[in-house]
Design a protein that fits this description.
single chain, about 220 residues, alpha/beta, Rossmann fold, 2 domains, 7-stranded mixed β-sheet, two-stranded antiparallel ribbon, 6 helices, about 35% helix, globular, binds 5-O-phosphono-beta-D-ribofuranosylamine
């Protein structure tokens, strides 16, 4: 029988890291064939780093101000990711624009979760944008990262109904629950090599490829 190996993940997070936690939990429970090898943050006090340490995962703070350019900052992040053998980079609330240096180091190997049904409401405060626009269905998106923010090919989405009386916070909470479900699922598809990108479309295939990644 074909053996499907585990892929090594690096997570980049700037905040509380509930998506990171969902990924760690899924990996520990054996629900995904992946291992979080390192967590990197640009925020020294990010709770995501504490979550990593609690799980026994190397937690690395990389300070943007230590570098004179984004290229050098991303070079330092790339070095840490490579040091830990990372094959897939998962952005989980990483509040920085990803530049060419990191994209070139991990072509089609950086994915992100965004709390809106892209291409609607990219950027900051997506849940507030959705409410203010008056949509009835909100949601979240896992996508491949490209040069434009919240833009690359879409791997998966989940819809969340907007309720009367929702505030940005109540809506964000319900969207987060879906994020915690679809992000590990998308990682599992990647780990099993079941994703194929054609232009903007990501197809989910039934056959697995041994090394993971995009077909
Ligand atoms: C999530 O809403 C995610 O979609 C967005 O940033 C937030 C991060 O939350 N990119 P957490 O740090 O995972 O709790």
């Amino acid at each position: 029988m074909k053996q499907v190996g585990k892929i090594n993940i690096g997570v980049l997070a700037s905040g509380s890291g509930t998506n990171l936690q969902a990924i760690i939990d899924a990996a520990e429970a054996g629900r995904i064939d992946a291992e979080v090898r390192v967590v990197i943050s640009d925020v020294a006090k990010a709770y995501a780093l504490a979550r990593a340490r609690k799980a026994g995962i190397p937690a690395v703070f990389v300070e943007r101000n230590m570098f004179s350019s984004r290229r050098e900052f991303e070079g330092a992040i790339t070095a840490v990711l490579n040091e830990h053998g990372v094959e897939l980079v998962c952005l989980a609330g990483f509040m920085r624009i990803i530049g060419k240096a990191l994209l070139d180091a991990f072509p089609n190997r950086i994915i992100n979760i965004h709390p809106a049904l892209l291409p609607s409401f990219p950027g900051l405060h997506a849940q507030k944008q959705a409410l203010e626009h008056g949509v009835k269905i909100a949601g979240c998106t896992v996508h491949v990262v490209d040069v434009e923010t919240d833009h690359g090919p879409i791997i998966s989405q989940a819809a969340v109904e907007v309720k009367e009386g929702d505030t940005p916070d109540t809506l964000a909470d319900r969207i987060l629950r879906e994020e915690h479900r679809i992000y590990p699922e998308a990682i599992q598809l990647f780990a099993h090599g079941r994703l194929r990108i054609e232009g903007r479309r990501v197809y989910i295939t039934n056959h697995e490829s041994r090394n993971g990644g995009f077909e």
